[in-house]
Amino acid sequence: MVFNQTEKQEISYLQQIINRLKQVISHTDVSVKDHVDTLAEYKDYLWSNKDIDPHEIRSMRESILNHFAIGESVIDKRQRLAKIVDIPYFGRIDFQQKNEDRSIIPVYIGIHTFHDTESRTTLIYDWRAPISSMFYDYELGEASYQSPSGEITGKISLKRQYRIRAGKMEFMIESALTVHDEILQKELSINADDKMKNIVATIQREQNRIIRNEEARTLIIQGVAGSGKTSIALHRIAYLLYAFQDSISSKDILIISPNKVFADYISNILPELGEETVPETSMEQILFEVLNHKYKYLSFFEQVNELLTKPTPDFIKRIEYKSSFDFIASLDRFILHIENHYFRAEDVKLTKHITVPAEFIEEQFHRFNRYPMRQRFEAMTDYILDMMKVQYTFTVTTAERNFLKKEIKRMFAGNNDLQVYKDFFAWMDKPELFKMRKSHTLEYADLAPLAYLHIALEGSTKNCVKHLLIDEMQDYPPIQYKVMQKLFPCRKTVLGDASQSVNPYGSSTADMIQKALVTGEVMKLCKSYRSTCEITDFAQKIRTNTDLEPVARHGEKPKVLQYNNEKEELSAIKELIATYQASAYKSLGIICKTELQAREMADKLQIPDIHFLSSQSTAFVQGIIITSAHMAKGLEFDEVIIPQVDGKNYHSEIDRSMLYVATTRAMHRLTLTYTKNKTFLLY
Ligand SMILES: Nc1ncnc2c1ncn2[C@@H]1O[C@H](COP(=O)(O)OP(=O)(O)OP(=O)(O)O)[C@@H](O)[C@H]1O
Hints:
- This protein has 683 residues and is α/β, with parallel strands linked by helices.
- It is 44% helix and 19% strand.
- The protein has 24 helices and 25 strands.
- Strands 1, 2, 3, 4, 5, 6 and 7 form a 7-stranded mixed β-sheet that branches. A 6-stranded parallel β-sheet has the order 10-9-15-16-8-17, with helices on both faces. It has a 6-stranded parallel β-sheet with strand order 20-25-24-21-23-22, with helices on both faces.
- The two termini are 61 Å apart.
- The mean pLDDT is 91.
- It binds adenosine-5'-triphosphate (ATP).
- The site of adenosine-5'-triphosphate has 24 residues, from helix 4 and helix 6.
């Protein structure tokens, strides 16, 4: 007999579970109140009995801490339960273990485990529990999963998916009956939110493999546009927090994201999955910190903007060179050169009678080569003085010690990062490849090599990051990965799409990243979920990606509309906006090539409720957004309008990248407009 066979039974079971959940929640309320009351009693007792003996105070202190900890864990449990009352579960498999006399267990799967202590049964399994993996990996029939005690094999005799909202079952689907995944189709046709959605109910097999990969120390995910890379990476973090809860917590994770808007857009996934948000930063911020916030520099946005608006061959050459592996090899050779030639020892007259000979000092510089160069001075001073003490039996004053250390430091010609970096180009006989911009501003491409040199000379401070997540991996050149590897020798998940680079002269493919990090397992995601087939086909014509396989979902064909002049184009865009406003869509992205064009367009449109997103913005908002292709990367909209796709505006390979990024942001509807002649990129 099948447990809860009919839909009617399932509906009444759902109600039963919700009632039980509510009951437990109200018990935990009482329990929390008890703990609060007890803590208050302790406090009163301590206040009114000031002269209690220290033993009693100590034991009370322990009891208070104990009560506090239990109270906190009860609150934590309560929060988790409150979260799942609306959607207790989304799937079920009935599993019977092989070679065991056990009966079939119905495994209901939700965001969190719900273990009923009274009946001692697990009513809901966390989607991350080992047994739940079968829900994603298998259809009916033979199945297996990895339990802590080894592989468990058996048979799945039933598989169901539910759509439950606000505690009500909207529908349920018997997996064996569906030809293709109806629930996935329904999820994909839903309108875009101002925050990324969690996808626990519809994670696909190829995605599940990535989420649950525990072996790879560095996992590099190359995924086509809209393949769920970012979603999967965040679900992977939630999974790792669950699977390794004794050794890793959210504060041990660091996300490197391209900008604040993107960070805001993805910020709700982990809380939705019941985990705390994890620290987030940007590549620029990290490099800037390594360099002690010392330099002014052109930001990555400014670099991309300059490449889009006034690229010069020299600028491109500088970026390309600093993104090559040859450059890294040369830097490494130069670091060796510093080691061998930058320390020029001299005799130091320590006292009237004692001189430390140059050769002896030089010898010590190389003796301590396990330390970064600038960190050797202290150890060298101590060692030299110890040796001298043995030989001459004298005591040194602090002043003499400091003097010796200062002299040793002075003998090293590599105390200034920037000077050393400039020396490198002279040493390479390529001085033209370094250019300081107006008012002592460095180019963005110089930031990482300078940080690399700094770390080689000075070392880096320890951090407690246990898992590093790098999104939009294609935009970071190899030298940046070299720096990250030095700073974060921990596990990593690195993800991106080589086809979506906005940094074409300095981008990295998965293979290059693997080479730079000297490790890494590459996994691919080829199915694209975001856009309709029509939009995906259109984008494929701009940049073909043979790996890409669209999910079968259909919609309107993208439109490319021609106008006689700018004024007509502008009023057409206004009409398109009005059509959007009258539709059920929730988000519209108007994506221009550059930030300046987006700003001008926003001014010209003069439409209230339109939000202009600049590289300085910090939050994503729902509704109508106008922004640059660079800023739009990683985001998605129900509808996208791309204005000014004329031949003058879009004409180069970097423009192609921008156009590709912009088109792949659209989920359901896409329109492009231009005046006079269309860009050749659209043929
Ligand atoms: N298994 C899935 N179930 C439901 N929706 C999914 C699934 N996988 C991906 N999606 C949806 O596809 C869209 C794209 O996901 P996401 O932004 O994570 O992809 P991406 O590969 O990082 O995209 P891009 O590189 O183009 O910015 C999102 O709306 C996401 O919810």
